[in-house]
Design goal:
The protein is α/β, with parallel strands linked by helices. The protein has two domains: about 10-170 and about 330-390, Periplasmic binding protein-like II (D-Maltodextrin-Binding Protein, domain 2, 3-Layer(aba) Sandwich), CATH 3.40.190.10; about 170-325 and about 400-434, 3-Layer(aba) Sandwich (D-Maltodextrin-Binding Protein, domain 2). It has helices at about 10-15, 35-40, 70-80, 95-105, 120-125, 135-140, 175-185, 195-210, 220-230, 235-240, 250-265, 280-285, 300-310, 340-350, 355-365, 400-410, 410-415, 420-434; strands at about 25, 30-35, 55-60, 85-90, 110-115, 155, 160, 165-170, 170-175, 210-215, 290-295, 315, 325, 330-335, 390. Strands 4-3-5-14-8 form a five-stranded mixed beta sheet. Helix 3 links the parallel strand 3 (about 55-60) and strand 4. The radius of gyration is 23 Å and the shape is globular.
């Protein structure tokens, strides 16, 4: 399907944190490579497209600074292809889009790059991305069949796949079932309606006296954002709102913000001051049984449940106001259209999205988008159960100013200022659609 609107860099937006950066060595050219990549450079095995006795030189930019697992993957790639390719690893940072476009324009493209499948418009519209569809469908779709559900939809534009995902990111709820059992509350294994969610929170508070929900301050924006995705009666109306065709003052948009305000007014820990709660405070409260439910990111859930020490935690889908969607996105890989050796680049990506490589992420507790991986965590499948429901098309992608307001000022602005806080958003919407 054709994507509309520029997708946000969702891993960073969702997490709001920077993870530890794995150490690596810097080459004279400013690129980064594990020792194993350099060691392989002296081998004499030839590669397709290379001269006899020489290895094909490839440059990969696949390791975001906030993703320590990607450093392990660099090492695995270097070791796996050490006798076939001379691989240099270039540092990946927030300037990735600019770096990719600059190298493509200079006819010196990066051979494989990490990029967000849901944010590929900028490359697809400029014919800068290689169509991966033929490779996915080759051999009776062997590679395509390794991806779970509709994971490939994130990188599909006009029926063609331009980026493949390896990890999907979205919010979920961790529920202390000992508390909800005491309150007589039962959460479904499937979709959770907003109305049922609010009734459950009210019952928990009334029956146990415990504040129902812990929500880290930097993740508070998830509430109105997801409401603005799911409040609509059908997909066309949802898409029209995301495209800026429906005003922020529409009754259903107002309903989405009203629902967010009601949640904070009544049920978010610790009550007064909920908009400034730190992640550590939420974690401590969840572990101590001072809150019944903790909002979290699916890729962090396994570690969160483990560190809580709670024996009876249920993974529950993020609540929806109507349509069965959850905000989120995915990290993945793309290949510039003008790479000199596309077959080699595809071979690298196939390995990066293999169960062999992605099992390392699974071992670290993070769900992935391919089959064939295994985990001893009984909840592991639940951390990826809503991948098929991710909706990355959001109204905030109309402009960076709208993004800033919805991510940094909401829901606080609406809680304190009510409908008047929507005036600025409405003004920016009108500017964006011009």
């Amino acid at each position: 399907m054709l994507k509309r609107g520029k997708a946000a860099k969702l891993l960073t937006v969702l997490l709001g944190t920077t993870l530890a950066i794995a150490a690596c060595g810097k080459s004279e050219e400013g690129a980064y490579a594990p020792a194993s990549a350099s060691a392989g450079a002296s081998a004499t095995a030839s590669a397709p497209g290379g001269k006899s006795g020489e290895k094909l030189k490839l440059t990969l930019m696949i390791a975001p600074v906030d993703d320590p697992s990607s450093k392990i993957e660099e090492q695995m790639v270097a070791e796996h292809f050490k006798d076939k390719y001379d691989i240099t690893f270039k540092a990946w940072d927030s300037n990735a889009e600019k770096t990719l476009k600059t190298t493509i324009a200079a006819s010196e493209p990066i051979d494989v790059a990490m990029y967000w499948p849901g944010a590929m418009e900028t490359f697809v519209d400029s014919d800068m991305a290689l169509d991966l569809t033929p490779y996915l469908e080759a051999d009776d779709g062997a590679w395509k069949k390794t991806f779970v559900g509709n994971a490939l939809a994130a990188g599909t534009y006009d029926g063609k796949v331009y980026a493949v995902p390896y990890a999907a990111v979205y919010p979920l709820l961790e529920v202390n079932k000992d508390i909800t059992d005491k309150a007589g509350v039962v959460f479904p294994d499937g979709p959770l309606s907003w109305d049922d969610f609010m009734k459950a929170l009210a019952t928990i508070k009334e029956k146990t006296g415990i504040m129902p929900l812990g929500l880290y301050k930097d993740w508070g924006a998830w509430v109105p954002r997801n409401n603005l995705i799911t409040v609509w009666p059908d997909e066309q109306t949802r898409s029209d709102f995301a495209a800026g065709k429906i005003p922020f003052t529409d009754p259903l948009a107002v309903k989405a913000f009203d629902a967010s305000k009601e949640l904070y007014d009544k049920f978010v820990y610790p009550g007064k001051g909920a908009l400034s709660t730190t992640l550590e405070q939420v974690n401590v409260a969840f572990k101590a049984g001072k809150i019944a439910i903790k909002a979290d990111v699916n890729i962090l859930a396994a570690q969160s449940v483990k560190e809580s020490g709670l024996p009876n935690v249920q993974i529950v889908s993020w609540p929806i106001m109507g349509l069965n969607h959850v905000l989120g996105g995915s990290n993945g890989y793309m290949i510039p259209a003008n790479v000199p050796h596309p077959e080699a680049s595809v071979e690298i990506i196939k390995y990066l999205t293999s169960a062999e490589v992605l099992q390392k992420r699974v071992d670290a507790g993070a769900p992935v988008t391919v089959s064939g991986v295994k985990s001893d965590d009984p909840n592991f499948a639940l951390y990826a159960k809503d991948i098929a429901n991710i909706q990355s098309e959001e109204v905030m992608h109309l402009s960076t100013k709208i993004t800033d307001i919805l991510n940094a000022k909401m829901p606080a602005s609406y809680i304190f200022n009510g409908k008047s806080s929507l005036e600025e958003l409405e003004k920016l919407r009108l500017e964006a659609i011009k």
